[in-house]
Amino acid sequence: MKKRILVVENNKDILDLISLVLDEAGYELELYLRETNIFEKITNFQPDAILLDIVKPTVEGTELCRQIKEAEGTSHIPVIVLSTHTQIHKIKEVCADETIEKPFDIDGLLEILDQQINSVN
Question: Which of 52, 100, 105, 120 would you label with 77, given CA atoms 20 to 30 Å apart?
Answer without folding.
Answer: 105
